[in-house]
Amino acid sequence: MFLVALVAALAGVLTSLTVLAVTGRLPGGGAPAAAPAAPASRVAPGAPAGWPAWGFTHTQNSVDPRSGPAQALADIGSQPVPQAVPIMGWGVDNPEPRKGGYNWGTLDRRMQAVRQTRGVPVVTLCCSPDWMKGGAPGTTDWSKLEKPVDRAHFDDFAALAAEVARRYPDVRYYAVWNEFKGFWNQAANRWDYEGYTDLYNKVYAALKKVDSDIRVGGPYMVLNSSAPGVQSSGPPSELAGPWGSMDQRDLDALKYWYAHKKGADFLAVDGASLPQQPGARVDEFTALRKFSDATRWLRGLDGGLPVWWAEWYVEPAASGWTDEHRGAVQAVAMMEFIEGGASSAFYWNPQGADANDCAGCLWYGSAHGGGGTPTLQNLQSFGRWFPPGTPLVRARSSNPAVRVLAQPHRMVAVNTSAQAASARIDGATLTLAPYEVKWAAR
Questions:
Q1: Best label site of 216, 335, 350, 373, fewest CB within 10 Å?
Q2: What's the pTM?
Q3: Beta-bridge mates of residue 424
C-alpha cells in the first residue's frame, strides 16, 4: 500500500509539474502570485528624473499645427505634459504603404504638435502596414487596422520601428504594439503571448541598435476585470478586490512576457476601472482601487520597472455624469495611480470631430474658443504638483467621502459625493461643493 501511495503521489507531482511547465500555472488555476508592492511613499518609485508621468494620447481628432485650435495648442503648452502618438491609425496615415516606401506627412505633423506644445514625445508602435499582415502593397484597408503582424514580417515591423527612431531622434520612449491587438490563441482560449513576445523582442533589439538610450516598454496588455462574484471565461484569478477580479489570462500573458523578454525599460498596461459586464453595479469610486491594486501587483513582478498605464478609462457608456462628477472620478483615478506607485498614466482623449459638446475631451471646439477643458487642467495640475520623485505625505480626512492626496507643500481634495461635504484635513476644515476637486497649499 505504501508503494502504491508513493507512486500515486509521485504521479500527481509529475502531472502538476507538467501542467506548470506547459501553461505556467498550477492545476486548478493556482499560480505563483506576485507579492504586491507596498503603497508608494513617493511619486513614481523607480522612475528616473524627467520621466514622462501624467499625459495624454493623440487620437483620431487632435490638435494640429496647421488647423489648431490655436488656443488648445497654447493651453497645452502652458503646462507641458507627455504626449503619446501612434505610428498608424487614430488620425495617422499608413507610414509605409509598400516596403521601403515611406509616408511621414501626418506623423510629422503630430510630432510637430508635440514639440510646439513642449511635450515629452512618446511613440506607440502600432499598428502595422497592410502588406505586413496579408494585404496588397500600396493599399490600406482601415477595417483591418487591428490585425496582427504576420510572423513572416516581424523583422519588417522591427525595421519600421528603427526607421521611426531614426526619423525622430528626440523621441526617447517607445511602447510596443497596443493591447495585444490580434494576438489571440483561439484554440487555447488565451492570448498568443508567444507571438507577441517574439515581435516585442525583435522591436526591442532594433530600437536599441539605433540608440541604446531609447526606452522601450511592453507588453501594453489590457487588464480586463469581472464584477465581484462573477467568474470570467478564463481560470480563477490571483488578483481581486472590492472592484472585482482580474482576468487571469491577462496576468498570465504579462508574466510570460516578463519571463521571456530580451529587456525592458518600463512595463506597460491599460484598462478600465469598471468591470466588463454591461450594467454591473459597482460604485465608480470603489472601482478605481483596481488601478492601485493592479499597479502594486505589477510592481511586485519587478520593483525596478516603472509601471506605465498607456490608457485608462473610468466612465460607463451613457453615464449621464456632469462635468463635475466626471472630474471627481478622474482626479481620484490619478490618486490611485500615484498611491499605487504608477510612474505614468496616459489619458485616451475622446475628442470628436466637433468638440463643442464632448464629454471628457481635453479642449473645446473652435466655436467655444478651442481652449483647454477642466480635464486638461486636471492632468496638468497633477503633472505640476506630483511629478516623479515627489515625497507623498499622509494627510488624513475626517470624512470618508473626501479623498485627499498630499505632498509637503500642496494637496488635492476630492468630494466623492453628490452633496456638499466638509472634512478636517491637516487640522483645518475644508468645505467642498458636490464632486468638487480642490487644490490647496499646505
A1: 350
A2: 0.92
A3: 429
